[in-house]
Write a structure and sequence with these properties.
35% of the residues lie in helices and 20% in strands. With 75 residues, it is of the alpha+beta class. It has one domain. Strands 1-2 form a two-stranded antiparallel sheet. It has a two-stranded antiparallel ribbon with strand order 3-4.
């Protein structure tokens, strides 16, 4: 089984528990809304939750993991 299928993450927009996928760190509802916004604005969304730990912190779609979790991944 693939790691992405086993590990749980958090939607970076609303914080709900979802499947771990740093390439798509949104739940179905937020992902649809963010995609619509990005088509018109051409910018990345700033989100409110770390995809790995779910803590409230500013992250971006390109970089959905907080600094503390990045340290854990590199150790």
């Amino acid at each position: 089984m693939n790691l992405n299928q086993e590990k749980k993450g958090f939607c970076i927009q609303c914080g709900v528990k979802i499947q771990w996928n740093p390439n798509n760190p949104y739940c179905a509802i937020c992902g649809t809304a963010c995609n619509a916004c990005n088509r018109f604005s051409g910018t990345d969304n700033i989100a409110m939750y770390c995809h790995m730990c779910g803590e409230p912190v500013y992250v971006e779609e390109k970089n959905p993991i907080c600094d503390e979790c990045k340290k854990k991944l590199t150790n």
